[in-house]
Structure formats: structure tokens, C-alpha cells
Design goal:
Blueprint (H helix, E strand, L loop, with lengths): L4 E6 L4 H11 L4 E7 L7 E2 H4 L10 E3 L3 H6 L4 E4 L3 H12 L4 E4 L12 H4 L7 H6 L1 E2 L2 H8 L4 E3 L3 H15 L9 E7 L14 H4 L3 E3 L6 H9 L21 E8 L8
Helix pairs in contact: 8-10
């Protein structure tokens, strides 16, 4: 790569895409050279979609097209797209020679048998599941340096694993006692499409649990802190502490996005 990497964002119309574009525009080592929406979308200036970016970007957000993406010669392709879309798109994008960073859950789990239950589709690329590096930099920094495919971690596994893994490594968790993980998400975590769950009247002055015992983070939590593929170098998979029961509860909070108070 040159001193400044050429980056593309696919799924640029959503909240994750917007935040990703904002971060890339402020990164001294990145040049954003392309933004793409869904296959059936019309070309629209990015700052018309996201007014907060006015004055900082001159790109059009284009309909998703593998050929158009390939012609841009990107070093990095970020996918802020739904799980099944990423599942299908990643193999073709890897053929461009770019490093692919997928923000969805399509390549986060090593075991394809988890996908029907937690993501609602059959995974057909176990070879890429094996290759993908879970992008939690605190524990995967060495492996990330040579990765072609990076599975960006979600908010809940990050909030759980970053504090929990060091405690387990240092033996600071009482053996045999359950670990309770109670995580909170802002409403933007549910995506941009309006639903009854995210309607203002439902979330304002409210606080509720959702997807109890079936959220995809349960699968990542079940594999994340024990698996050498996910937390390499920690040896947690070889300790009895890592086999302790973990109870995960996910809550929707009325703020726009989860931040430190």
C-alpha cells in the first residue's frame, strides 16, 4: 500500500456507513475513493444522504456494482451491509486484491452451524470463515496485519470481551461463578429502517430488553472468549475459567447511540 490507502464504503446510506465515512474522511492515512448503496439505488451525492457531511465530501453514492468497485483500485473495501449481502459479496470483493473489512456478522463466527439459528441463513463459505480474522485489535493485532478478510466485531462482543478477557487471564474471576454481561445499545444499533421497536413513542423514556437468548451476540460470546481463533495468544480456551457460564442480556436504551456518559 502507498502512504495513503484508497478506501471504498459499501452500504454508505445507513448509520454505520455514515459513521464509517466520517471516520475515514478524518483519517490521515485514508483516501475515500468510492461510496456505494444497494444495487437498485440511484446515484445521489453522499452529503445529500448525510447532511452532517456537507462541505467535507464531494462523492456520489452509487448503486452497488462489483465491476465499478473493481475499477477503483481500492486497497480497502468496507462493507456496512446486511449479513446476507456481505455473505454473498465478500468472495467477489476479495478477487479485487483489496483487504475486505466486513462490519456485518457474516464472517464473525468460525462454526457455520451457528448461522441458521443466529443469523437466519445457511453459510456456504466455511473456507472464508476459517480465514477471516476477528477484528478486535486488543487481542488480534498480529493476525490483522496479514489478513485479507477482517470480520469487524459488533458492539456487544466488544463491550464484553475487552474487559472480560484480561480478568480471566489474570485469574481475577472466581472459579465456578457465573459471569453476567448486561449490555446497553443506543437506538441506532437497530439500523436505519423504522420499526415498531424503534418508533419514538416506544423508545422515549423507555428501557427494554430484546432478543433474549437468541441475539447473535450469544453465539459470539459462546465462541469469543474461549476460541483461539478469536482471542489468539490468551490461552483462555485452555483454562477452566473460560468454561464458566456467561449470561448475556441486551437492552435497548433511549439514546441515539451508545456512548460513555
Amino acid at each position: 500500500m502507498s502512504s495513503r490507502a484508497r478506501a471504498i464504503v459499501a452500504g454508505a446510506t445507513g448509520y454505520s456507513g455514515r459513521e464509517l465515512i466520517r471516520l475515514l474522511l478524518g483519517h490521515p492515512g485514508m483516501d475515500l475513493v468510492g461510496a456505494f448503496a444497494s444495487r437498485n439505488a440511484e446515484a445521489v451525492p453522499v452529503d445529500d444522504i448525510h447532511p452532517m457531511l456537507r462541505g467535507s465530501i464531494m462523492l456520489d453514492c452509487l448503486p452497488y456494482d462489483d465491476g465499478a468497485i473493481g475499477k477503483l483500485g481500492a486497497d480497502l473495501i468496507f462493507l456496512a451491509t446486511p449479513n446476507e449481502f456481505s455473505h454473498e459479496a465478500v468472495p467477489q470483493l476479495l478477487e479485487t486484491g483489496a483487504v475486505v473489512v466486513d462490519l456485518s456478522g457474516a464472517y464473525r463466527l468460525k462454526d457455520p452451524s451457528f448461522y441458521p439459528k443466529y443469523y437466519g441463513f445457511e453459510h456456504t463459505r466455511p473456507d472464508l470463515l476459517s480465514e477471516a480474522v476477528f477484528g478486535l485489535t486488543e487481542f488480534s493485532r498480529v493476525d490483522l496485519k496479514g489478513a485479507r478478510l477482517i470480520a469487524n466485531p459488533g458492539c456487544y462482543p466488544t463491550s464484553i470481551l475487552v474487559p472480560l478477557v484480561p480478568l480471566l487471564e489474570k485469574g481475577l474471576v472466581i472459579q465456578g461463578q457465573p459471569i453476567i454481561c448486561d449490555s446497553k445499545s443506543g437506538v441506532t444499533g437497530a439500523g436505519k429502517q423504522p420499526t415498531s421497536l424503534t418508533h419514538f413513542v416506544e423508545v422515549s423514556e423507555s428501557f427494554k430488553s430484546y432478543n433474549l437468548f437468541k441475539h447473535s451476540a450469544h453465539a459470539r460470546d459462546r465462541t469469543g472468549a474461549r476460541s483461539p481463533e478469536y482471542v489468539k495468544g490468551s490461552d483462555l480456551h485452555a483454562t477452566s475459567a473460560a468454561d464458566q457460564s456467561r449470561h448475556f442480556n441486551d437492552d435497548l436504551y433511549q439514546t441515539q447511540s451508545g456512548r460513555e456518559p
